[in-house]
């Protein structure tokens, strides 16, 4: 644990801009700046993520680290920052972790098998608006990994369930629905993520507010797949 | 900066004949690769956004052996993900008079007659297949109660042809491409290299045959050899430091390909997006776009009087200037981006801007809330309003948003022919990284369309024609070694300066200079000033930059320093290109070339061409590609 003092923090700064200011100073002093992942800085790419005062992405709900602003902290506050901590997310350096386990879960079945050029006209299959909207809500997952960092079991259930739910709600996702659920859940286990015990910490920190009932959908599909 | 003029580019490889038959003709004439041979052919795809992700996935599906690279920790992060508004397609599902021809027409006109008719027509044709593909992948587009896809009118279009997924269309389309890519990774046709940055292109026997990349975790310099290389590395808007691009977006891949012989086309064409959140302080690291779909219901205004410091709610209607509605009654708040941006700059230059520093205009939802109710407005724009409040701390349901233009997209990029092949055989360039289809101004919801058209449909056909002539033999070992040494030398040089300024401080200064002198409005004087100042700043950079750490580790300071170094060289070419194009067109506004009403004035007699720059040994060489318009008559754009 290292303590840094940061001066000149404006309330309109984002959390990452505060770290930029600190890093600029560290470079000039010849120190190594703090390594952290970030890219879009508008809350959608899912690259940033750190545990701030014990909470993944900080206390403001439904907000990624890059969208958290310093006006939510008191002047002079001491802030603790840690990387995501979970065995399947090894730390690369400082606050940078390796989340490639998420990619491998998607590789296991988080897709519809439809090669380019093979699709029928988009209007050939109508989709009930309610289903399309619910599928969209699940599909907004940004793959940041906060759910894993917050879970006492280090479970990736919310991430995995979000993709399974998104595709299960659409007619295009039906042919592979059960094989998908089984393959993705098995891969999640193989990566060393823990099981879900319904503590709900994941959904509380999720920047996109993916609801916990996605996990129920996943479990239901998984059970059906195993009963076959 | 001195330049010379080289030979004209006469042949872009577009087929002749009726425009609606050209792409069919090209597809049929393209040679095919035997399925058994495909897996012996290696293709490198750099970048995993809409263009690169869809291309790598599709090439994998076709059976090629693909290596895909991205600088992020996973291909799903590419900045296409941040596109909000939507994607155009000529489906005419509304029966409101849309057609392939109309999308083609609007795009050629919107590009201010500086794009190629053949390319744009193909883009409009392919647009309909993109929607089919995305829906089949499970992209959850907005739907109506009948279960059919919803569309909206967007960014200056008078038909409703924009498909969308709330304010996250780019995210949903990118995840569709990403999932297709992951499927191919699982199938073993694509090998993924995340956290790798391309630092040079390998050319052997005149052909692009591979790349030199740096493993950003270990610092290892790697060589990757292939039969063809595809660059899908996005735009260069971050040359301005502040832009709506992701922090990591950079020009290094295309710039270093340019240094190896690929022509760079129309570098000065940059798009300034009218609706972004204004700068709030010196520490600002990026600018955030607010989808221009907001202009469908929001009304743009400034106070009628200069320096009016009253709160917006205290300014009565008769003392407000809804300037877009006033100047452009036909299009009102929906005028294209270049027009809306410049109008905002003009009212701010008059001293009527609002917010800190007077660099902002209001985007007001008061009337929409009164007309439709707060709930309806929330349904449409809720997530955008939340985003605005999170950043500014102000509630847009109660006080109007403040917006200001910001750099958003670059229409320029590496020159490509109809096959999307650069001037280096075997080097293909797709998506924002090429210059292709948007001319001097890109219309809203057309970037997603072009990226996916290139990646899913165009490149997979045209690259086959190139690869069918292969294999191209062994790669010259000396060429590989030379490229690797060049990369290492540059890294060593950056690390050895050990000066007093950070890479970011140089980047900020360069960006400010570009914004002031080569931004929304350019003059001969400002561009000459920039061309004088950039070399001085670059010299200072190489003398005084401080890069901490070593080359053999994860070193984000080193990564940034390398990118900033390339931005200097690109900035210079942008200013030169802007200087010699003395007309105004699309996103390129030369103050010397405007009509009596202050609108952009094109000079078709002298500038109806693409400016393709070659990097010669004695400075840039300009090659002009003449543009001809057989179908859409060249007219001065008018949105009044």
TrEMBL record, chain B:
> Start and end of every FAD-dependent oxidoreductase 2 FAD-binding domain?
43-448
Keyword list (alphabetical) reads: Cell membrane, Electron transport, FAD, Flavoprotein, Membrane, Oxidoreductase, Transport
EC number of the protein? 1.3.5.1
Give a GO biological-process term. anaerobic respiration
Q: Which residues form the active site?
A: 337 (proton acceptor)
Catalysed reaction per UniProt? Answer: a quinone + succinate = fumarate + a quinol
- State one Pfam family annotation: FAD_binding_2
Write down the membrane topology.
Peripheral membrane protein
Provide the cofactor list for this protein: FAD
Q: Where in the cell is it found?
A: Cell membrane
Q: What GO cellular component term, any one, is given?
A: plasma membrane
Principal place where this protein is found?
A: membrane
Q: What is this protein called?
A: succinate dehydrogenase
Per the UniProt record, the source organism is Nonomuraea phyllanthi
Gene encoding this chain? sdhA
